């Protein structure tokens, strides 16, 4: 009889609590994602938009083409953050929750990783430095690259990801370090019709 009562107690009280706790984690993630979206929208809502062409070629691929590559993930964009970058550039830190590993490193499942996208918030003095520009008061602008659009917070992405090359001598690692990005969580990425490597 005691065993039956204990089992009933477990079913009646413990299972609903565990269901609530897993639901609350999901709710917190949704709440944080919405908060991040509101913050980004407030930062960018009033900014003038500058359209830019991405230099170089983009080599898109399909999921079928990606088999044998490092890792292919499906994820949800969790946050966007402005990066401090050198003149004539604009980049954004894109944090992605890995919902599913389609191919490759299964340890990425359910982790939040960082990707660097072209485009984002910068200033007119930085963006137009050493270019023929009409002088105006320095102010923030939103740079949008025609070929690599920034994803929206809450949207889904499917990308190939590769760990950042820690022997890269191009200066990109220095930029990541200056922005205090965790190199173990930061990945080069490639997606349909667009790619970007750091």
UniProtKB/TrEMBL annotation:
Residues 1-19 form the signal peptide. It comes from Companilactobacillus suantsaicola. Keywords: Signal. This is DUF3221 domain-containing protein. It comes from the Bacteria. The lineage of its organism: Bacteria, Bacillati, Bacillota, Bacilli, Lactobacillales.
């Amino acid at each position: 009889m005691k065993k039956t009562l204990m089992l009933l107690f477990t079913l009646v009280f413990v299972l609903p609590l565990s269901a609530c706790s897993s639901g609350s984690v999901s709710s917190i993630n949704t709440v944080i994602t919405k908060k991040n979206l509101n913050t980004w929208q407030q930062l960018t809502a009033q900014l003038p938009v500058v359209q830019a062409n991405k230099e170089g070629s983009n080599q898109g691929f399909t999921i079928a083409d990606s088999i044998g590559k490092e890792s292919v993930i499906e994820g949800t964009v969790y946050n966007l953050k402005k990066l401090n970058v050198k003149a004539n550039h604009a980049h954004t830190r894109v944090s992605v929750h890995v919902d599913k590993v389609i191919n490759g490193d299964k340890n990425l499942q359910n982790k939040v990783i960082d990707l660097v996208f072209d485009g984002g918030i910068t200033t007119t003095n930085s963006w137009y430095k050493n270019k023929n520009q009409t002088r105006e008061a320095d102010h923030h602008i939103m740079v949008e690259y025609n070929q690599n659009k920034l994803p929206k917070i809450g949207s889904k992405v499917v990308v190939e990801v590769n760990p950042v090359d820690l022997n890269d001598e191009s200066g990109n690692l220095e930029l990541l370090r200056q922005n205090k990005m965790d190199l173990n969580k930061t990945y080069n990425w490639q997606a349909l019709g667009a790619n970007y490597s750091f």
